[in-house]
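Appendix B. Chain record.
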Amino acid sequence: MSALPPSSSPASLPPNAACPRCGGDFRCGVQDGHCACVGLTLSSALQQALAARYPDQCLCIECLAALSSADVAGQALQLDPVR
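Structure tokens predicted for this chain:
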């Protein structure tokens, strides 16, 4: 599965200036047709948790990768901001 929640589409996602989880600068490229998160695989449970915690928002690739790795390793997920 790709990193984008099933309900997300380029038209529904806002442009990002900062990741809502870590506060780091980034730009979601989904509206440009080359979003880096498409290369990540997130479990259905993680996608649902992210959609609930960050509705209609994108996280930076670093946060998504860290959450994906923790999920695969069976570790507790730190969904809340880590600023």
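Further analysis of this model is presented in Appendix C.
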